[in-house]
Amino acid sequence: MKCAVYLFSPLVLMTFLASCLGQSGAQTDALANDEKFLKDAKIATDGPGLLAFLRARTLSETERARLAELIPQLGARSYAVREKATQALIKAGRAALPHLKAALQNKDLEIARRAEFAIADIERVPHVAVMSSVIRLLAARHPEGALAAVLAYLPCNDEDEVDDTLLTAVAALGVQKDRIDPLLEKALTDKDPARRTAVAFALGKANPTQHARTLSTLLRDESPRVRYHAALALVRGGDRHALPVLLSLLTEAPRREAWEIEDLLYRMAGDQGTTIPPLGSADQGSRKQSREGWEKWWSTAGKKIDLAKINFDEAQLGVTLFAEYDGNQNGMGRVWLAGRDGKMRWEVTGLNGPNDARLLPGGRVLIAERNANKVTERDQQGKVLWEFQFNDGAIACDRLPNGNTLITGWNQLIEVTREGKTVWNYTNAQGGGFRYAYRLRNHHILAVSASGQVIELDGAGKELKRITPAQYGSGAGYWASVELLPNGRYLVAMGSSGKVVEIDGTGKILWEASVPNAVWATRLRNGHTLVANFEARQIVEFDRNGKEVTTQTISGRAFTVRRY
């Protein structure tokens, strides 16, 4: 279901939201950025103004149905009728897109031309950024009627990023000190699954143990998304009886939720999960095999697990994944996994310049091969399960929650689907190309350029901000990496400068360590920093004082080293 949006001036279209969700120290700044962004867009930011904005974009089922009646009017004899219908469809915004896109194939050229014009006008609006800002400010300011407005808008949303913001807002507005708002209680039986989903999320966010009885009733809901959020909340609260529901959803839930369930299961099972068939591309065949594997695990070893003792947020596998660019006699590279004891568990050899690798659920691995100009998904024996050819030099990769893949090239970042279709691409407006990029928890993209600039994009590839580290010597040069830290700062490795620096949002250096050819750095959970010294074939660990703790020498030159 979709909802109306609004028109923006060209100037405002160049301004985008800059905020980092989930970082406690950055919450105030994020809300200030939301307010400034909306004010620049001429959108009222007081409580009544925000409510009016959201309500104006909440269409009833009758209003949405009437949009189809406007399409034939685009070809009416009267210019006034044609123009009125065009403007009405544009004003309806995203709700009109299905009708307009179908009209592109209309035999009446005037209808097709006006549909194309209306689509372009609607899609140039930064819908995700604006709606997310409005909803976050409503949740923070809590004007009277905010919960009702957000619940009313829920069925209109069709964007994952806005969906996450909406659910968080319902949790903030609907549960106060574990007291459930009567509107949430009413939404438990709402005919629209989007509202019932929001209730399940809100109760789980508040206190799954206290609301276990209500959540348990939602385990029988007809909507897979409702069952998913209810079961997830109960399992994370230590309720074993909800686990079979999660297992059943491996074949029934939307693809994004199925992958998240699989990830949670692998964290619970540890080494025992490596023999269970992975979801893969989440087609029905692989889903069925995976579900059967997990149900067998649960019937034996799984039942011995004490869910209350598992920290689902901090659970670690205790393994390290190495992407070695080269090293063996024929100059080929490899990706290999080491256990807690440092011993190799498996390796994929014969790779042509692997720059980056990421462990996927089920022990699969996503690999960016720079010299082969491709990204592949492989099993532990090296069998290719998925492949995308990328002739801009595939230098980094990241699997997104929706199943798509983010790829970093020399000159562009792209998101591609499992079918190989490009969703969006981004080139560095200031030149210099890229060295690394990955997805943040709030679905934004964080990248570092060859000059060492840190660039943040929204989930659609629109630039939000750009930071230049101060006094960084020779800059990133031939290689670099970047990581957003929990404190809102950035960890940047700059190869040519031989430094790893921690910077704030202004680029000020707050911590640094000197490492020749530092091509990769990551902050460990114990506060230490792991750095790859490319030419020396070493992995060095530093404490918070910049003191070397350990140094590991490996056979090849590593670009990335990840702890899981």
Shape: globular
Q: How many β strands by DSSP?
A: 26
Rounded mean pLDDT score: 85
**Rg from C-alpha positions?**
25 Å
Q: Figure out the total of helices.
A: 17
**Low-pLDDT residue spans:** 1-26
Tell me what portion of residues adopts beta-strand conformation. Answer: 15-25%
Number of domains: 3
Strand order of the largest sheet: 5-4-3-26
Question: Main β-sheet, in a few words?
Answer: 4 strands, antiparallel
Going by CATH, what is the homologous superfamily of the largest domain? TolB, C-terminal domain
Class per helix and strand makeup: alpha+beta
Portion of residues in helices?
A: 25-40%
Distance between the termini: 38 Å
Which architecture of the largest domain per CATH? Answer: 6 Propeller
Describe the structure.
With 564 residues, the protein is an alpha+beta fold. It folds into three domains: 1-206, no CATH class; 210-315, no CATH class; 320-563, Neuraminidase (6 Propeller), CATH 2.120.10. Helix content is 34%, strand content 24%. It is built from 17 helices and 26 strands. The strands form seven sheets. The protein has a four-stranded antiparallel sheet, with no helix packed on it. α2 crosses α8 (127-141), α3 runs parallel beside α9 and α10 (160-174) crosses α12.
Give a nutshell description of this structure.
The chain is of the alpha+beta class and 564 residues long. 34% of the residues lie in helices and 24% in strands. It has 3 domains: 1-206, no CATH class; 210-315, no CATH class; 320-563, TolB, C-terminal domain (Neuraminidase).
